Amino acid sequence: MTALEELTxxxxxxxxxxxxxxxxxxxxxxxxxxxxxxxxxxxxxxMLPYRMRATGxxxxxxxxxxxxxxxxxxxxxxxxxxxxxxxxxxxxxxALFSCDHIRRMFDAWxxxxxxxxxxxxxxxxxxxxxxxxxxxVEWMAxxxxxxxRSLEDHFQVTITNEALRQSIKTCNExxxxxxxLYELRKKEAPPVTGAEALAIVIAGSSMPVEEFNQLLKQMxxxxxxxxxxxxxxxxxxxxxxxxxxxxxxRLIEELGGLVVTDFLCFGVRDFWDLVEExxxxxxxxxxxxxxxVSCPRMIDHPRRDKFVRDLVKEFKVDGVIIQRLKFCDNWGxxxxxxxxxxxxxxxxxxxxxxxxxxxxxGQMRTRVQAFLETIRR
Amino acid sequence: xxxxxxDVGSTTGKAVIMKDHTIAAYTIMxxxxxxxxxxxxxINEAMEKxxxxxxxxxxxxxxxxxxxxxxxxxxxxxSEITCHGVGAYWLRNSVRTIIDIGGQDLKVIGLDDSxxxxxxxxxDKCAAGTGRFLENMAxxxxxxxEELSTISLKATKTTAISSQCSVFxxxxxxxxxxxxxxxxxxxxGIHESIASRLSTLVRRVGARxxxxxxxxxxxxAGLIDVLEKKLDTDIIRLPExxxxxxxxxxxxxxxxxxxxxxxxxxxx
Lengths: 377, 268
Fold this sequence. Notes:
The structure holds two protein chains of two kinds.
Chain A: H1 3-8, H2 17-24, E1 29-32, H3 39-44, E2 48-51, H4 73-83, E3 92-96, H5 100-111, E4 122-126, H6 134-155, H7 161-184, H8 194-203, H9 209-223, E5 234-240, H10 246-254, E6 257-263, H11 268-271, H12 281-291, H13 301-314, E7 319-325, H14 329-345, E8 349-354, H15 361-375
Helix pairs in contact in A: 4-5, 6-12, 7-9, 8-10
Chain B: E1 2-8, E2 12-19, E3 22-30, H1 35-49, E4 60-64, E5 76-77, H2 80-91, E6 97-101, E7 106-111, E8 117-123, H3 131-141, H4 145-153, H5 166-178, H6 183-204, E9 211-214, H7 221-231, E10 235-236, H8 245-267
Parallel strand pairs in B: 1-4, 4-5, 6-9, 9-10
Antiparallel strand pairs in B: 1-2, 2-3, 6-7, 7-8
């Protein structure tokens, strides 16, 4: 199996052989719901940080016991997986106030009838400020320190500054490698599709980071010999929130829209910014997580706008597609503003509403195809 | 140069044969369960009318509509949004907004001054305001679609139908019938509710004039009457059957493809 094949596999299932091997060695796995949870702290505790997905869910009938029909379907499906005991490989779960949907889903984890694998199960909800400024960074450092201590207390481990520094380096390496991959996508004929890139980013939070880095390095070598994709109608940037299904991008790419970059949380928002390696680790983490390229939950739109414009230029993007889960408040506002700005700049832009499961594929195909035809007939 | 456009929609199949930029023949038929079969029958009927006997005689065929990927003889497929834009602009180049009411969805398409699609919105998540909705309502009222249209034009007042959901609207209509409300007034209320939904979508793409209407429901004079009042403007009628606008666009795009490849060849 090539490294590329190995790296695109974990996205297809909730757990995978890498996690199973980790568990066999009595390794602990901590699930987290949002890119604002610093994986370095979990990593420094000797545990495997696992970004939560609902992959494999086919309905949400159990999740709907606690979630309303106005809750986003990702949360409903993830909760459903939790209630079915599909996350039994976890030793703990960290959430934060990413949005109302995730926050209320966390209540269900805490108070609901979830089949938890261990007792007491580690559950924590982090607070993250909404502003990007110096007091927010300072406050975040305190919150991250409380997070570190709570992990130490619960699992009876010590998270030293030295370990944190090492974890920062390891996670930074992952980010640098992913950025090298994205660098290749700037080419006239990118060697990976958008669907593959999404799967690779997902793999980055679905296996031990060291293993991922190893495979990614190998894969970057393999890509040198791979012919690029040049048979496309348009180069696209895919923006939006939670998206963990490469098949969604595959559908867009089958119609000729090659996704060459993104503004997704399983994407650039996850890995773009590095953490300072020589500073006091908790302070460095607080700074990075507050100042990183932000999610629309942060009151930081102008910076995001500039970031997306820069991506459009650097990756020679012909059009922007925004995918938004129905009832996602953050992306409802952000997507609308992105559309306005794109219109001003003369960049073709379209917002697609979606549900967690891919449904109404025919309609989606019509919209995407018509959109691509407006770019190039 | 003989080309064809074949539009396999959710309810009807349409085919247009074009000879040197003019419409030679067309056909409109009820859909069969399989899109391949619908496409085959539609193209055969249109060819027969045009005096052709085999698809081999057609230089290029473009498929469109929901069934566009399943048209076995098509050389290419193009979305019905682009096709409607091209077709309507060709028939009347003053058109800037096209309302397309099909069997299972509504589309409003905005064109720029050169006739290219600038923006489009679709209502495809539910049956509100679609042909399917009108069919259901006509059935509840015991009318054909034509009767639903004419009876609405004779209404003395509008009975408000507040629900935009086709399932709930049906129960609302049944309640009104049981209260003894005039059928014409209910029919007008039904058209009013669709027109509300449509006027929102039209305004969303900018409501630039001229506005025209395509698709099967464009034949419903009762609906257009209400819609013109809501939008406070005339809705212009295209000089061809409104159901074949997409197929005309597909045929025009087939012509364009042929001409483009011919000019590429001569350039070489």
